[in-house]
Amino acid sequence: MYFCCMCVEVKNITKFYGSQKALDAVSFTIEKGAIVGFLGPNGAGKSTMMKIITGYLTASEGAVLVSGFNIATEKISAQQKIGYLPEHNPLYLEMYVREYLMFNATIHNISKEKVEAIIKKVGLTPEVHKKINQLSKGYRQRIGLAAALLHEPDVLILDEPTTGLDPNQLLEIRTLIKEVGKDKIVLFSTHIMQEVEAICDRVIVINKGQIITDKSLKELKENQEQIIEVEFDYKIEKQFIDTIPYLKSATNIHDTIWQLTFLTSNDMRAEVFDFAHDNGLKILQLNTKNKNLESLFRELTT
Ligand code: ADP
């Protein structure tokens, strides 16, 4: 046994399904208090990675440590630290909500009081007397989350927890994930960039089994390009254009029309207006064509 703080360490994980390499030397570390979005198109390897972290699949190469416990060689100790909500939330539909959670609690030797506290925490109190098959998908996800939280894990692994939810349910589950994630590690997979923007501190993008980006949301936003197309009333030289701050490149599209690319999260329209004013120019047209995180994701994964 090792001593380690609350953390998940994924070291060089490779996974073969037959001859297909589903994960290719994936490494990352997540520490306490982080909500990490695990983003990638379908088939990228997200579920495979999550099943390996939780010990439901064995890696072909590499190791995963969960709060210091090796998931392959100290499986039970490691799994005690993990709450897992699989992609197809497996519930006993004929059971009542409280009955189902009590049943899970008994397996883990968890007190009734603890179950009641979790029911309250995930907002299941009004539905607790109903059968699971009478509940909406949003409430079923809450039950899955409650079950994953029962044993007070350090780490929550949520495989596409918001897929199939309507916009209200989606907001509610996102808020809940943010709330319960405050003193844990949360790794949740999604293929929706907005979701990552809404709740994550960090995003790991995976494509074809390889990590292609691992950045804080702040870093990712700062690296976004901002494109402005502007038409002045006079033709000007590129050397003047080049004096505009944060300019990455400038292309003369036609005579007096320029396409300006900036590398900053600041709104550069005001700078362009100031530039025109300082140089005695008038702006006849200005359009922004910003690349948002969604288009960045498409670029990264296609
Ligand atoms: P994601 O969760 O990102 O959609 P998966 O981890 O489910 O991706 O799948 C990654 C790749 O591994 C895909 O090409 C998928 O077809 C393949 N795969 C997943 N599970 C199995 C399996 N049990 N047997 C064979 N191939 C699999």
UniProtKB/TrEMBL annotation:
In terms of Pfam families, this protein maps to: ABC_tran
Kinase found in the keyword field: no
Q: Name one GO molecular function term.
A: ATP binding
Family annotation (InterPro entries): AAA+_ATPase (IPR003593), ABC_transporter-like_ATP-bd (IPR003439), Motility-assoc_ABC_GldA (IPR019864), P-loop_NTPase (IPR027417)
Q: Where is the ABC transporter domain?
A: 8-233
Kindly state which keywords UniProt assigns to this record, in alphabetical order.
ATP-binding, Nucleotide-binding, Transport
Similarity field: Belongs to the ABC transporter superfamily.
Protein name (Swiss-Prot/TrEMBL): Protein involved in gliding motility GldA
Give the species.
Lutibacter agarilyticus
